[in-house]
């Protein structure tokens, strides 16, 4: 587990039932940016920094000094991500404590001076903050009526609480959502929720709680065997690997997959007999057909555990490398 300078307020439980989650991609090949560059969030909302390739940070600064750490501010520390990583990127989470502006920068090399800055609730001051970072005149903040300068990223990734209105669902087609799934916990041999519906492009973030579980792709036909061993079409399938969590743990690692298509995704925990006890998970199971989640789980319970704990990783399988870097950075910060 990474250590952070400010562990004042860990938001561990998804009290976030009604809170929004904002995914912010940090870096990536040839990209010195946070995407989006700012978000407008409410108290209790969660900002997830998803660290992509290279070696960046999410470090709190101030409007006056964009490229200097704020005293007592939060800091993810450097999160190096190898070029070979394709999934399971490390994530640092920030729970928004209030609606005041929070200023963030990357403290790697001259990234900040190149404009790699981010803000929560900047109002209309983001471009002034960014130009102060790049050495431009900070001057007076522009008024909100001024046109957005080029390179200004508008808040397209805003994830709002699903509203029961038709207009809300039509706007959600252009955004992606992250679905949070709790894995295990004291006396809990299940994923919660165990079956979800997701759009292509959405992510599913598994938060590993107590004991020692996995989330491993399987198939409807063989719920308790890794997809890599049962596939007839050469799919490798994802596998988080075992993620042991101490009984006294108070911070939890997360591991994320992306929903690439509309096909159902089937998965299980390959620890001991967890699968045959019903510890299975699905995305986009067709509830109206025979291959629904309940049928999948029933099949798992009727199956004898096969080769649990001994998944064989093919030579073209990079999951092992991905898993090593998938352990998550949890930031908690009190926003100033
Ligand atoms: C990440 O960057 C920091 C600061 O430049 C450096 O100390 C660290 O060695 C880098 N890590 C990797 C794996 O490149
Ligand atoms: C989506 O595609 C990526 C890249 O090919 C892969 O690593 C990931 O496992 C896929 N997601 C699922 C749910 O299979
Ligand atoms: C987690 O479970 C795996 C498989 O049973 C085992 O190899 C590993 O040692 C366990 N880790 C811990 C820390 O208990
Ligand atoms: C959890 O327990 C272990 C072993 O008993 C101990 O070393 C560790 O410091 C404890 N961690 C916390 C966060 O209390
Ligand atoms: C999950 O599975 C249960 C039982 O099959 C079903 O009633 C429910 O509609 C499913 N939920 C989703 C989101 O698919």
Structural features:
336 residues, alpha/beta, 5-stranded mixed sheet, 4-stranded mixed sheet, 21 strands, 11% helix, 23% strand, elongated, binds 2-acetamido-2-deoxy-beta-D-glucopyranose
Reconstruct the topology from this structure:
Elements: E1 21-26, E2 34-35, E3 38-39, E4 46-51, E5 54-56, E6 59-61, E7 79-81, E8 91-95, E9 102-105, E10 117-120, H1 126-133, H2 166-171, E11 178-183, E12 191-192, E13 195-196, E14 203-208, E15 211-213, E16 216-218, H3 227-230, E17 243-245, E18 254-258, E19 265-268, E20 280-283, H4 293-302, H5 319-326, E21 329-330
One 2-acetamido-2-deoxy-beta-D-glucopyranose is lined by residues 195-197, 285, 287, 292-294.
- Side by side, the strands of the main sheet go 2-1-4-8-21
Content-based structural category: alpha/beta
Q: Work out the helix count.
A: 5
Low-confidence stretches: 1-17, 137-174, 305-336
The succession of helices and strands, N to C, reads EEEEEEEEEEHHEEEEEEHEEEEHHE
Specify Rg, calculated over alpha carbons. 21 Å
Beta-strand portion reads: 15-25%
Number of distinct beta strands: 21
Mean pLDDT: 77
Q: What is the terminal separation in angstroms?
A: 25 Å
Biggest β-sheet strands, sense, barrel: 5 strands, mixed
Characterization of this structure:
This protein is of the alpha/beta class and 336 residues long. It has five helices and 21 strands. It has helices at residues 126-133, 166-171, 227-230, 293-302, 319-326; strands at residues 21-26, 34-35, 38-39, 46-51, 54-56, 59-61, 79-81, 91-95, 102-105, 117-120, 178-183, 191-192, 195-196, 203-208, 211-213, 216-218, 243-245, 254-258, 265-268, 280-283, 329-330. Strands 2-1-4-8-21 form a five-stranded mixed beta sheet, with no helix packed on it. A hairpin with a 7-residue loop joins strand 11 (178-183) and strand 12 (191-192). It is elongated and about 65 Å long. The model is unreliable at 1-17, 137-174 and 305-336 (pLDDT under 50). The structure holds 2-acetamido-2-deoxy-beta-D-glucopyranose (5 copies). One 2-acetamido-2-deoxy-beta-D-glucopyranose binds next to strand 13 and helix 4. One 2-acetamido-2-deoxy-beta-D-glucopyranose is lined by residues 86-87, 238, 257-258, 260, 265.
């Amino acid at each position: 587990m990474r250590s952070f300078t400010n562990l004042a307020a860990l938001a561990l439980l998804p009290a976030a039932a009604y809170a929004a989650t904002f995914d912010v991609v940090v870096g990536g090949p040839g990209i010195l940016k946070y995407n989006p560059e700012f978000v407008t969030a409410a108290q209790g909302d969660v900002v997830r920094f998803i660290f992509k390739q290279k070696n960046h940070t999410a470090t709190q600064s101030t409007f006056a000094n964009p490229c200097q750490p704020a005293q007592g501010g939060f800091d993810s520390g450097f999160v190096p991500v190898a070029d070979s990583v394709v999934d399971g990127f490390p994530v640092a989470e920030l729970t928004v404590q209030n609606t005041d502006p929070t200023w963030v920068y990357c403290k790697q090399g001259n990234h900040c001076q190149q404009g790699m800055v981010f803000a929560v609730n900047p109002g209309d001051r983001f471009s002034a903050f960014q130009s102060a970072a790049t050495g431009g005149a900070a001057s007076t903040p522009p008024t909100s009526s001024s046109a957005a300068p080029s390179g200004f990223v508008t808040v397209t990734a805003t994830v709002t609480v699903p509203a029961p209105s038709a207009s809300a669902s039509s706007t959600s087609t252009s955004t992606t959502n992250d679905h949070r799934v709790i894995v295990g916990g004291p006396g809990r041999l299940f994923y919660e929720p165990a079956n979800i519906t997701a759009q292509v492009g959405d992510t599913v973030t598994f938060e590993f709680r107590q004991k020692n579980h996995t989330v491993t792709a399987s198939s409807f036909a063989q719920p308790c065997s890794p997809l890599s061993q049962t596939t007839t079409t050469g799919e490798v399938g994802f596998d988080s690997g075992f993620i042991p969590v101490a009984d006294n743990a108070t911070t939890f690692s997360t591991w994320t997959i992306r929903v690439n298509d509309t096909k159902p995704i089937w998965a299980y925990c390959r620890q001991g007999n967890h699968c045959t006890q019903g510890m299975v998970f699905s995305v986009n199971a067709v509830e109206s057909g025979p291959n629904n989640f309940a049928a999948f789980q029933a099949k798992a319970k009727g199956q004898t555990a096969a080769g649990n704990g001994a998944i064989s990783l093919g030579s073209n399988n990079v999951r092992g490398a991905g898993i090593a870097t998938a352990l998550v950075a949890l930031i908690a910060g009190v926003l100033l």
